[in-house]
Design a protein that fits this description.
By secondary structure, this protein is mostly helical. It is 75% helix and 0% strand. It has helices spanning 2-23, 27-47, 51-77, 91-111, 125-132, 142-168, 171-179.
Length: 180
């Protein structure tokens, strides 16, 4: 019964944060809402018995990729944002969602035993890594997806920087800088 309550709370937070991504006017708030959505998805992965995928979700997506996206947003913004609103409609959902996620994590840590079973086969790191990174001819080929995703993210970041440089070098942006 407690797992069902966790699932309902985490799914409401995930869907609500995903809606906040679309509703936020500032791209940085959208990125923060996306991080909240990814962390709640990691909690759902933990509920269904896949703690390794949950940890990978937090480390890779909510950690590394979103840090890169946030960095690109901050670089491309170029200090043109003189007034960033402190709170908007999105923060009315995101702030309570972060507090509820922190409460759920704290409650789960207090209630769960701190024992680790290294012999558990289901969802183990060894089994997952052997499946994902099997480069044999007869393997499933999942490692190619990681390579393609890395190249896609790199090309998107380079394209965003090039588009921003074009826009920053235009006469319109130079006139804006002269006014400030």
């Amino acid at each position: 019964m407690l797992a069902l309550i966790y699932f309902i709370v985490l799914s409401v937070i995930a869907v609500g944060a995903a809606v906040c991504v679309f509703l936020s006017r500032h791209p940085l708030y959208g990125a923060l809402s996306l991080i909240v959505s990814m962390v709640s998805l990691a909690g759902i992965y933990g509920l269904i018995g896949s703690p390794f995928i949950g940890v990978v979700q937090i480390m890779v997506y909510a950690g590394a990729i979103m840090m890169l996206v946030t960095f690109v947003i901050m670089v491309l913004n170029g200090a043109r944002d003189s007034k960033t609103p402190m709170f908007d409609k999105v923060s009315l959902f995101v702030i309570p969602a972060v507090l509820v996620l922190a409460g759920l994590v704290g409650f789960a840590l207090v209630r769960s035993p701190v024992a680790f079973d290294a012999t558990a086969l289901r969802g183990s790191v060894k089994l997952t890594s052997e499946t994902l990174f099997n480069v044999a001819q007869t393997g499933p080929g999942y490692f190619v997806l990681f390579e393609v995703l890395g190249l896609l993210l790199l090309s998107a970041m380079v394209a965003a920087v090039l588009l921003a440089k074009k826009r920053l070098g235009s006469a319109e942006s130079e006139n804006m800088e002269d006014k400030h």
